[in-house]
Amino acid sequence: MENDPLFTTFSPIKIILTIFAIFAWTRVILRFRDKVVNFKELAFWTIVWIGAIVIVFIPGKTTALAKLLGMGRGFDAMVFIAIVALFYAVYRLYIRSNEAEQEITRLTRQIALRMAALEEKNKE
Amino acid sequence: MKLAILIPAYNEEKSIGQVLDSLPQKIAGVDKIDCIVVNDGSADQTAEIAKNKGAKVISHWFNRGLGGALGTGFEYVKNHDYDGKSGYDCLITFDADGQHNPLDIETVIKPILEKKADVCVGSRFLTFEGHMPWYRRIGLTGMNIITFLLFLVWTTDSQSGMRAFSRNAIEKIQIKTNKMEVSSEFFYEINNKNLKYTEAPIKAIYSEYSLSKGQKNINAFNILAKLIFKRFFSK
Known about the structure:
The complex is a heterodimer of chains A (124) and B (235).
Chain A: H1 5-8, H2 12-33, H3 39-56, H4 61-69, H5 74-123
Helix pairs in contact in A: 2-3, 4-5
Chain B: E1 2-9, H1 16-22, E2 32-40, H2 46-52, E3 56-60, H3 66-79, E4 90-93, H4 104-113, E5 119-123, H5 134-151, E6 163-166, H6 167-172, H7 182-192, E7 197-201, H8 208-213, H9 219-232
Parallel strand pairs in B: 1-2, 1-4, 2-3, 5-7
Antiparallel strand pairs in B: 4-6, 5-6
Helix pairs in contact in B: 5-7, 5-9
């Protein structure tokens, strides 16, 4: 279990994730300088991204996760979680787009009805 | 007794004039008949032709689909000079593609006039006259089963475009879906608002034109997704 090659060795994915976390953290610092985010938010995101880097370098964590879910390999667990998250995201998007569609219809309806009422008034 | 004939139309310039001409001027037991065309963002001459034929035309700026158009018509009829006396007593929806026989209007509104039902749907399956293509028959039967499973109202023609409503139904029904799934949504409302439902036999006139404007079977999957959403997930 400890020799899951993707996460125990010093693999490219770790470097990519680390670089990404540092990049995201610098964005937060820039936004803090521009006073878009306050100190509390800066502290929060600093903890999040440093935590992310630390987690990336803890060996065997995905394997532990896989064990928890009753799966063989850490990679499987990651894919499983990613798919569930994606399904949820699609579901949320579906609701959002449905709501937006209904709002557009309501708007179109009100405009149409008001125009029709105006027309009737002008006739009289 | 005031009757509103509601015709949703989207790019129907080829048929709308003929359809409006064919509508009955007089029906026994009805004092006044008004034609309301909801022009659903047509890019052609639909609105102009309908206006010239004397129909009341309400125009959407954008195309919103059948449900959007019917909802607009319902809202217009609901609020139109209604002071408890002078509003419409009955509303019937009618397709603009010429697939309905205007003589069937009388049959479909009869249960409403006699106060025997709140909603009466003109079913193309209660009579064997008129030839419905077999593939369409299969698709429609599937939709009937889906409608029953989701909304617990058994109907022989859930997708029919000819439906009559009483004043009670006009006031209670709220249409929220936008597209073709509206046909089944009516049954959700019938079930939900405890409306009395009945059916009357009508004859479908299938021309090449009306078939090309109709639903394709493949669209059933899209409708199904929307209906499941409506049944289980929407507020």
